[in-house]
Design brief:
single chain; globular; 7-stranded parallel sheet; alpha/beta; Rossmann fold; about 45% helix
């Protein structure tokens, strides 16, 4: 059966890989992003919709265009703002939480309301991070937001189970996105520092993350809800 799969932040990086993986199975994929979404959608051969995940009205209008959603992948988030505890501006911390926590909450709430209203079971997969469980100096704002995403995942899972809606998260370690590759080229000291923390001695690919999302959205995970699945090459073991 063809499912409608909505991937937020789907225009690039991990979101693009997730959208590609679902599209290959024949699902009706819709990518949502705050801008430049139609070009990305066209190149992937999927539908695109403009959406600001931190704006209730924007989400509602976008969901009206999309129609009933069977699978929601909450991939959109803010990763680029960092700073140590004593130096991070309060306004930056507010922005991180507003996007990564409040935005994820709004997406879960709006999509789940529609699923419940239509008497429709469904699946929600959030993008978290192992940083929510393993701190890295200078990244605590982002990591705190992802710990909150894990808590949101459990909250939604326990309350939506009676409606047949499963809610899980995928928690990657460092992922070799185009942005990371540009900032930490092969052979650089910065990349080697990250790789040295990973028992499998390699960064995750975007396809590794997409595969975990696909699993949690599939019937093979029919009895899995409320979990946050690490995709980290064993980094949490160290």
């Amino acid at each position: 059966m063809t499912r409608t799969v909505l991937v937020t932040g789907g225009a690039g990086g991990i979101g693009r890989a997730i959208a590609t993986a679902f599209a290959k199975t024949g699902d009706d994929v819709v990518i949502a992003d705050i801008d430049d979404v139609q070009d990305a959608a066209g190149s992937l051969g999927v539908r695109g919709v403009t959406m600001d995940i931190t704006d209730d009205t924007s989400i509602g209008q976008a969901l009206d265009q999309v129609g009933p959603v069977d699978v929601l992948v909450n991939n959109a988030g803010l990763l680029s703002v960092h700073g140590r505890l004593l130096e991070l501006p309060a306004s930056d911390m507010r922005q991180i939480l507003h996007t990564n926590v409040y935005g994820t909450f709004l997406m879960i709430q709006q999509v789940a309301r529609r699923m419940v209203g239509q008497g429709q079971p469904g699946v929600i997969v959030n993008l978290s991070s192992i940083g929510g469980r393993q701190p890295t100096p200078g990244m605590g704002g982002y990591e705190s937001s992802k710990a909150a995403v894990d808590a949101l995942t459990r909250w939604a899972a326990i309350e939506l189970a009676e409606h047949g809606i499963r809610v899980n998260a995928v928690a990657p370690g460092p992922v070799l996105t185009p942005t990371l590759a540009a900032g930490m080229p092969e052979g650089s000291a910065a990349r080697q520092a990250w790789v040295s923390r990973i028992p499998l001695r390699q960064l995750a690919s975007v396809e590794d993350v997409a595969a975990a999302v696909m699993f949690l959205a599939s019937g093979n995970a029919a009895h899995v809800t409320g979990t946050s699945l690490p995709v980290d090459g064993g980094q949490l073991l160290t």
